[in-house]
Specification:
The protein is built from twelve helices and ten strands. With 306 residues, the protein is of the alpha/beta class. The strands form two sheets. It has an eight-stranded parallel barrel, surrounded by five helices. Strands 8-9 form a two-stranded antiparallel ribbon. α3 links the parallel β2 and β3. The radius of gyration is 18 Å and the shape is globular. The protein starts with a helix and ends with a helix.
Length: 306
């Protein structure tokens, strides 16, 4: 056994990928984003085999076209992503389900098994304007949990997909307190978590602790780090998430926190297969910036055993 292989654990239950987010893509169409063809070319060139769909409409929505484009680059799809406002109650269902149906259909047709569910922001993601209160009422929490369970049931029944809910900065599922309340209030057979290590650290959470405490609820990972110095400034000034990203709060591994090797080792110890999708929020970013970062990040993850 070589010294390098002895130093790195074998993370054979972890399937590493990347996403349009790591190429500065937040919206289906935006002149500040790279064309989808360039994203696919570069994510493959960087050494990744798995990708997420990103915002619906950024990549081709015709499954035949997308299958051809991904296959010739040796790429496969791990998940689609949806945004929901379940805390608004039954009034939000029809609009939510129409969006879910589009994304879930493409996700299923691409052979993926997961739907990443991101709660709606309480700040506008472009203007940072306050849209609604940052804390939910008791009734809104009830809408959020029961609505998410209903969504999970319908998505599994109609599309054969499992949902994984993504705690996210500037949403109502963000801090350790909110995440634990959400998990304790939802059915473990229906609702699991997409643990985003960067967002959880951004909101003060400990990813390793969460994995060890709620391991059976961890269904998917997003790998991300935050710059602690910039995060301290963001917290001190109350900077909204969008401007914080432009400030560089999400940084290239291994330059930030949390340390990823302990996270990956804790995830491996769960004994289940997990996707670990690299997401470094960089919207907007220069078009030549993502690829070198993606190459270095992939090399770093290989050095960790992934």
């Amino acid at each position: 056994m070589s010294a390098s292989s002895a130093a790195s654990p074998v993370l054979d239950r972890i399937r590493v990928g990347s996403a349009p987010d790591s190429w500065g893509v937040w919206f289906p169409d935006d002149e500040q984003q790279v064309p989808w063809q360039r994203f696919l070319d570069e994510v493959s060139e960087a050494g990744y085999a798995w990708i997420e769909l990103g915002p619906y409409g950024y990549l081709p929505t015709d499954p035949a076209v997308l299958r051809d484009e991904t296959a010739r680059r040796d790429l496969k799809v791990s998940a689609g992503t949806i945004f929901t406002s379940m805390h608004h109650g039954p009034a939000a269902w029809d609009r939510t389900w129409a969006h879910v149906t589009e994304v879930a259909t493409l996700t299923r047709d691409m052979g993926a098994k997961h739907l990443v569910v991101i709660p709606s922001f309480w700040r506008d993601d472009k203007t940072a304007e306050l849209i609604e209160p940052s804390e939910l009422t008791h009734e809104q929490w009830k809408h959020l949990t029961t609505g998410t369970e209903l969504l999970a049931h319908r998505v599994r029944e109609e599309f054969g997909l499992d949902i994984v809910v993504h705690p996210h900065a500037d949403t109502h599922i963000d801090t350790e307190e909110h995440v634990e309340r959400f998990l304790d209030s939802t059915d473990a057979d229906l609702v699991n978590l997409c643990l985003d290590t960067g967002h959880y650290a951004y909101c003060g959470g400990d990813s390793v602790k969460l994995i060890k405490t709620y391991g059976e609820r961890i269904g998917y990972l997003h790998l991300k780090q935050v710059d602690p110095a910039i995060l301290a400034d963001v917290a001190d000034k109350g900077t909204p998430f969008g401007p914080a990203v432009r400030q560089g709060v999400m940084c290239e591994p291994p330059l930030g926190v949390p340390a990823l090797p302990p996270v990956l080792e804790a995830a491996q110890a769960l004994g289940v297969d997990l996707f670990a999708i690299v997401e470094q929020d960089m919207y907007p970013c220069p078009p030549d910036q993502p690829l070198p970062i993606a190459r270095r990040t992939r090399r770093f993850l290989r050095s960790c055993g992934a």
